[in-house]
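The record is kept unedited without comment:

——
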Amino acid sequence: MHFHPNNVTPVEVAVFLRAVLRHLRHHVIVVWDSGTIHKGPDVRALLERYPPRHRGVFPGYAPELNPDEFVWTHFKAALANGQPDTQAQLLMTLCRLTAKVRRRPALIRSFVAAADLPAFL
């Protein structure tokens, strides 16, 4: 997991997607919204070179379909009573929380199950 202090760019999306495709040798399903970060030239070039088996697009604003929203809800609840003094402290806490979640596959599955995704996913 990578945390970015600023908005993510199409270049960072392409770098992430390239890493996913290198790591996962089987079929990959890409589902994202129609935001401009998913349409940059680097992303288009990568998708032309490595077309995903399935690609779905969320509506413009549909947090109920996005498992990430449930991850962030979980993180926000864990951070609710904290007060980091610096961005570095916040990042360290987020990294610790991420490591804890990674050790709980049932929790990760619950984030995906909570999203109102189509059955084929």
Notes: Residues 18 and 64 are 26 Å apart (CA to CA). Strands lie at 29-32, 54-57.
